[in-house]
Design a protein that fits this description.
alpha/beta; 16 helices; Pyruvate-ferredoxin Oxidoreductase, domain 3; 477 residues; eight-stranded mixed sheet; 3 domains
């Protein structure tokens, strides 16, 4: 396997260049694993992306680097210590280094000649194409997909300059390492044993969670932007017309979670996303959903805390908060996703659990997999299905009473005909399963009540100790 580190400052095109390289490698059959380390700023600082790839499944990053692709001097200064002895550097010939492993390219000069400083990184991309003997036309296709049309030719010209500056022989060792087995033994995988991953998909966990929620029938997503979860909202916003969903940027985290609770109460499949600091603000509304027995799904993409912490880095410090935050006792499911593939299936599962048990569900992810991309098998859609959604009218009332289509307690045959009478519907009826009958508000045939105060089976405030205990015990079954 081979490990590339691409480094530079924010604003130097690191994200775009990294995306182009990963698409190039993936299109040529490599299994690629990408991690991103970003500083919390729009310009400047030091950002880097690692791309580890090979002919076998890549499941994690590697601290040791085979190639440093430096877009600025700082990248060499910081990461030279991580370069393997047989590794090498691709950098601008204006940078300072006397390391014999360096391949110095006219990145800045080429960009000046072409009249656009931001195409300097494309010179390095051209050098990579030469080193790994990748087809040039594939790069054109990728530029056409990722860049505006007026920038395709200028970037192709920059890449050509980098291509011509490197000999094919210089890449022989790199190609051997990329086609070798994991473990650093250098054993080359025979060509007839090399798996082609070009038909697999490359995705990060944020997008996988979004798609998993859509596969469950997501109808409403709202959030206040908070790294590293913001990309979920951005991705869904780009799909809202195609997927026929509503995506709303809330004014804060309290508005987001309360909107989810309200939408779910009305019958929508709803979700929000945040990070640890945002979830702290959502705790009361989560407890409200627990008390009113309303489905609510929240994605927590963890980052280092406490408070603001490090917004663009990774940590897994919010498990206890996700499990225990909230006053009193109410059931809550917390699902920690394992990787990018698991994120898709668990997001679908989270909505089914929320709807079936009428309870809040937390999906725990972290920045490492949320922003990092992995090459995975295409999702098996036979393993996921949509939750049933019905509107609050008479036709939907009959629909929900059909056990073949119902959600919640109806799935277990617990709803009785007497529950439909306007003066007898027990929204919080004590049941053996702990799941009460659920109807949507607005039905003319049944009055649906909900209250965050301790309540009786009908949903009205009740302060009797035995009633409170019975409801707590029911919810916790």
């Amino acid at each position: 396997m081979f490990n590339i580190l691409l480094g530079g400052a924010a604003g130097q095109g690191i994200e775009t260049t990294g995306a182009v390289i990963e698409m190039m490698l993936k299109a040529n059959g490599y299994n690629v694993f990408v991690t991103r380390d970003l500083m919390s700023r729009v310009r400047g600082g030091h950002n880097f992306t690692t791309l580890r790839f090979g002919r076998e499944p890549v499941l994690a990053h590697d601290h040791k680097v085979d190639l440093i692709l430096a877009v600025n001097q700082e990248t060499i200064d910081i990461h030279l210590k991580d370069l393997r002895e047989d590794g090498f550097i691709i950098a601008d010939n204006k940078f300072r280094t006397d390391d014999p492993r360096a391949i110095m390219l006219p990145m800045t000069d080429t960009a000046k000649e072409l009249g656009n400083a931001r195409v300097a990184s494309s010179v390095a991309v051209g050098a990579l194409i030469r080193l790994f003997d990748l087809p040039e036309e594939a790069l054109r296709d990728i530029f056409e997909k990722t860049l505006r049309s007026e920038f395709v030719e200028i970037n192709m010209a920059a890449a050509k300059a980098g291509f011509n500056a490197v000999s094919l022989d210089q890449g022989e060792a790199a190609r051997k390492k990329a086609n070798s087995r994991a473990g650093g033994k250098g054993e080359i995988i025979p060509e007839d044993e090399r798996k082609d991953y070009s038909d697999w998909i490359m995705i990060n966990a944020n997008r996988a969670i979004a798609l998993g929620a859509l596969s469950a029938g997501l109808q409403f997503y709202t959030a206040y932007p908070m790294s590293p979860s913001t990309a979920i909202m951005e991705y869904l916003a780009g799909l809202q017309n195609e997927a026929n969903i509503v995506v709303e940027q809330a004014e804060d985290e309290l508005a987001a979670i309360n909107a989810v609770v309200g939408a779910s109460y009305a019958g929508a499949v709803a979700m929000t996303g945040t990070s640890g600091g945002g979830y702290q603000l959502m705790v009361e509304a989560m407890a409200s959903a627990g008390m009113m027995e309303i489905p609510a799904v929240v994605v927590i993409v963890m980052r280092p805390g406490p408070v603001t912490g490090l917004p663009t880095r990774t940590e897994q410090g919010d498990l206890d908060m996700a499990i225990f935050a909230g006053n009193g006792e109410y059931p809550k499911m917390v699902i920690a996703v394992k990787n990018q593939s698991d994120a898709f299936y668990q997001a679908n599962r989270a909505h089914h659990i929320a709807q079936k048990y009428q309870t809040p569900v937390v999906i725990l992810s972290d920045q490492y997999i949320a922003d990092g991309a992995a090459t995975i098998e295409p999702f098996d859609l036979s393993k996921v299905e949509k939750v049933t959604v019905a509107a609050g009218d008479e036709e939907a009332l009959a629909y929900r009473m059909d056990p073949a289509h119902a959600r919640g307690d109806v799935m277990h045959g617990e709803t009785k005909a007497s529950d439909l009478a306007a003066d007898e519907f027990k929204r919080y009826r004590i049941t053996e399963t702990g799941i009460s009958p659920r109807l949507l508000p607005g039905n003319p045939q049944a009055f649906v009540n909900a209250d965050t105060d301790s309540h009786c089976e009908y949903g009205f405030i009740n302060e009797a100790a035995d009633v409170h205990t019975a409801q707590v015990d029911k919810r916790m079954r």
